[in-house]
Amino acid sequence: MNSIWILLPVLFPSALAVLIFLLKPKEKIRNYIMGIGITSNFFFVVFVLKYLGVREFHLFKLNEFLQIYFKVDKLGIMFALLVSVLWIFTALYAMEYMKHEGKEDRFFMFFSITLGVTLGIAFSGNLITLYFFYEFLTLCTFPLVIHNGSKQALKAGKKYLIYSFGGASLVLVGMILLFSLTNDLSFLPGGILSNLTNLDNEIVLVTFVVMFMGFGVKAALVPFHSWLPSAMVAPTPVSSLLHAVAVVKSGIFALVRMCYFIFGAKAIEDSGGQLIISVFIGLTILMGSFLALHQDNLKKRLAYSTISQLGYILLGIVLLNEDALIGGLLHLINHAVIKITLFFCAGAIMYTTHKTKISEINGIGKRMPITMWCFAISSISLIGIPPTNGFVSKWFLAIGGLHVGKIIFPIILLVSALLTALYLMPVVSAAFFKKGDFEEGVIKEAPLKMLIPIVSITIITILLGLFPNLVIDYLREIAQAVL
């Protein structure tokens, strides 16, 4: 079968956006178009994976540096499936939520384009292709961040652009340095530097650190994290995309590609880059948790939580051993499903009560029991209490830290887990055990279009904790191929 079919799930969402722009359909018709289109795109991804397998498609080549091509491999498959599944739930949730935000057609246009761009990142065959889609991701998510057009939103959007383009500039500098060493930017399991001898470790170190910091901007690596809490001014479906699916996970995905398909574990260890980056990651894990403790705004508390949890994944990447990488990739998946649920629950509270602060939701568990039980289950999972999915991924990360003789990393994970409990469980406690304005009156849950995604992803979260072996075995294959 022709490899050009790889482009189908990448380009089809943009066709959906064009269709909405041209037709300007009524709400019901637009929702049908989006629902059928986003779901169809999931099946297009499955089609590509089933019938094409591991295959490449070269779209454009000007020289060895500027060549655009796509490749399907196990890591890309994992990311593409995660994105495609969670996008369906987000689309359904947004159909209801965006009613009170306005400008729905514009939202769904960029929402759809962002899906295609994210899948382009998943299927990129080399670093320059990934970089182009990485830049497109900034451009197509910017209108989502500034959706409501307020002064605060525009300020957040400006910060988002400055940080994102600043990080992209670092990546570009790193790519030029890298190309001077390798004359190749293709993704190769184990890294293209592993095949080279007589490398200058100082140049490798500078290149690695510059590129890691560049991609680390979207992954909210401290000190490049402040754009993420600021972006909470965006509608909740956008926050879910930023924190759980598209932007931050694209940053993580790019770092996995860079570390294990460009540099390789040996080159990183020999250069000493692992030690330098580990300091920033430790700060990211702890600082995110400490800052979350002081936030009364629920979405901002979840935003700082995301920064800390992304540090877990980054830790799994730079420890450079099999268990740690499995833990990092597993937490990429687990954090995505947990955090999107938490944001959906926060959005449901805002939608039904117009409350945004934790201090204002005392007793809301009696009014919205399903929503808050899903929030509680997701919170327990994020803390990492057995037998949740969060515990499984953190267990692998701790074992990975011990394998390299660094007991400090398991200690950091334990301290962060305690802090996670301290900033999430008070929300649950306030909802169920404190008296407040929501105790009396008729119980009013979120609308069904919002409740179905919340409950469905909570069930997925539970299943990933109870039956993790299928995912772990798949991730082990990825880890063994690159280490």
Verbal overview:
A two-stranded antiparallel ribbon has the order 1-2. The two termini are 31 Å apart. The radius of gyration is 21 Å and the shape is globular. It has a domain at 321-483. Helix content is 74%, strand content 2%. It has 483 residues and is an all-alpha fold. β1 (56-61) and β2 (67-71) form a beta hairpin. The protein has helices at residues 8-23, 27-52, 74-97, 104-122, 127-145, 151-182, 201-216, 227-230, 236-245, 247-263, 265-271, 273-293, 298-318, 322-353, 364-367, 369-383, 389-403, 408-433, 448-466, 469-482, and strands at 56-61, 67-71. Belongs to the CPA3 antiporters (TC 2.A.63) subunit A family. It comes from Clostridium grantii DSM 8605. Pfam families: Proton_antipo_M (PF00361), Proton_antipo_N (PF00662). Its main location: membrane. Keywords: Cell membrane, Membrane, Oxidoreductase, Transmembrane, Transmembrane helix.
